[in-house]
Amino acid sequence: MEKLKCLICGMNISENSYHLNNDSFIEKNEEGRIMNCPFCGVGRIYIDSVQEIYTVDHKSLDTQSLQVLDHAMKLEVFNGEFYEEAGKLSKEKELKKLFKDLSNIEFMHARVHKRLGEFDNLPKLHKPDYAKHHTDNLLLEEAYKRESHAIAFYKKNSDKITCPVIKEVFKALSDVEKQHQFIANAYVLRK
């Protein structure tokens, strides 16, 4: 397998990692057929063996762009923490794995925003009590709502960003959230 790198998150993709978080994708990665970054979930067009990772000079970013990146980072941490808890609350083994994979992907999105904004740390957020989502269907419905919110966030805030690289990152991550929304909905329809 050729050495590949994700241009969004910067992670190297190898025969040891291509299969990670596969439950969070509509089209699964296979050895020799990588469809998504196994770390942040972006599509094949953002995976390359030669190009450099997308970067920005955070000093050139205006205040609004930095605020949007900060909010994006918090949104992804919030969703990552939800999926972490959903994995614990879920009754079904298959869903536990899905929620774990989704949590990994969302936390990687937060790390992408952290890197672009050159923030010191991921934020520590207040964790709500998710016990009211006491069935797998309620957890999936909440997942669908969160993915819908993330898609809307990226769409709305992309217009506020002047940096083309960040606009492209938002587009790539929004496409990942659309996959997650589809997967959550598909599970609800199966039940």
Task: Give the SSE layout.
Blueprint: E1 4-6, E2 12-13, E3 47-48, H1 63-89, H2 93-117, H3 136-158, H4 164-190
Antiparallel strand pairs: 1-2, 1-3
Helix pairs in contact: 1-2, 1-3, 3-4
Tell me about this structure.
The protein has a 3-stranded antiparallel β-sheet with strand order 2-1-3, with no helix packed on it. With 191 residues, it is mainly alpha-helical. The protein is built from 4 helices and 3 strands; from the N terminus they run E-E-E-H-H-H-H. 39% of the residues are buried. The protein has a domain at 58-190: Ferritin (Up-down Bundle), CATH 1.20.1260. The protein starts with a strand and ends with a helix. It is globular, with a radius of gyration of 16 Å. InterPro entries: Ferritin-like (IPR012347), Ferritin-like_SF (IPR009078), Rr_diiron-bd_dom (IPR003251). Pfam families: Rubrerythrin. GO terms for molecular function: metal ion binding; oxidoreductase activity. Residues 68-183 form the Rubrerythrin diiron-binding domain.
The chain-level mean pLDDT equals 94
Look at the helices and sheets and give the structural class: mainly alpha
Name the quaternary structure: single chain
Following the backbone from N to C, one meets helices and strands in this order, namely EEEHHHH
GO molecular function: metal ion binding; oxidoreductase activity
Domain Rubrerythrin diiron-binding: 68-183
Protein name: Rubrerythrin
Pfam families: Rubrerythrin (PF02915)
